[in-house]
Automatic annotation (TrEMBL):
InterPro entries, per database record: GntR_C (IPR011711), TF_FadR/GntR_C (IPR008920), Tscrpt_reg_HTH_GntR (IPR000524), WH-like_DNA-bd_sf (IPR036388), WH_DNA-bd_sf (IPR036390)
CDD domains, per the entry: WHTH_GntR
Keyword entries, A-Z: DNA-binding, Transcription, Transcription regulation
Protein name, as recorded: FadR family transcriptional regulator
Source organism of this protein record: Hungatella hathewayi
Domain HTH gntR-type: 11-79
Domain of life: Bacteria
SMART domains: FCD (SM00895), HTH_GNTR (SM00345)
PROSITE patterns the UniProt entry points to: HTH_GNTR (PS50949)
Length: 235
């Protein structure tokens, strides 16, 4: 899948606007059935175009958080309330950012493999071995994992894409805090699933060293599948 800067920037804008609308609902203590201000008013106040605002509202409507009535306006629904309301919105925003991040990272991996130097491959292998060793003790090597994935992006050589993905990671980590708090309340040991990803990191690098793009991408997809397995647990 080709990277389209304009498309991804629009998706990020819509995601930020949907967050802003949710925050408005929360700050104003709006309840199910309450009406949001009109599009013209919000667009002028937030200095965004009405089409962009409309797309953000449509995203929330698709999630059942608001609903629009022709000629009447946009209203808060009774889909979820309180804590669950916040959890479902955090999940929705996280998954959208995660999807874009995954597409860009996978594309970078595919393009980097044929030309990546042996020196860089050895560095990736060293990181993967260390992460796997740490994970085998039951400890999550979070910072090292971030560095590993950033380094793959740097190996592709598109600095703009690297910065964009890193910014998205920072954004969705704000939702991670709320989602992981939910998992802890439900006594769900999500760490055990995350730890299962690290052997695939090492296998992926081994396939990269063999210049086997297809098999390397299969390992990457397994990592993503395990990550997503965690979020399927949200009721």
């Amino acid at each position: 899948m080709e990277y389209n800067r304009e498309t991804e920037n629009k998706r990020l804008l819509y995601s930020k606007l949907s967050d802003k609308i949710y925050q408005y609902i929360k700050d104003e203590n709006l309840r199910p059935g309450d009406k949001l201000p009109g599009e013209r008013k919000l667009a002028a106040e937030w200095k965004v175009s009405r089409p962009s605002l409309r797309e953000a509202i449509r995203e929330l409507e698709n999630q059942g958080i608001v609903h629009a009535e022709v000629g009447k306006g946009t209203f808060v629904t009774d889909y979820v309330e309180g804590r669950q309301f916040s959890i479902h919105l955090a999940l929705k925003n996280f998954l959208e950012l995660f999807e874009v991040k995954t597409v860009l990272e996978r594309y970078s991996l595919e393009k980097a493999i044929p030309n990546i130097s042996e020196e860089r491959l050895n560095k990736l292998e060293d990181m993967a071995v260390q992460m796997n060793a740490i994970a085998s003790t039951g400890i999550m090597p979070k910072e090292m994992d971030h560095h590993f994935h950033r380094y793959i992006l740097e190996c592709y050589g598109n600095q703009e894409m690297t910065n964009l993905v890193c910014n998205m990671i920072e954004m969705y980590e704000t939702f991670d805090d709320e989602l992981y708090g939910y998992f802890e309340e439900k006594d769900f040991d999500y760490f055990q699933i995350l730890l299962k990803t690290f052997p695939y990191h090492l296998e992926m690098v081994q396939m990269m060293k063999e210049r086997n793009v297809e098999e390397a991408l299969k390992r990457y997809d397994k990592i993503v599948a395990l990550d997503l397995e965690i979020y399927k647990r949200i009721e």
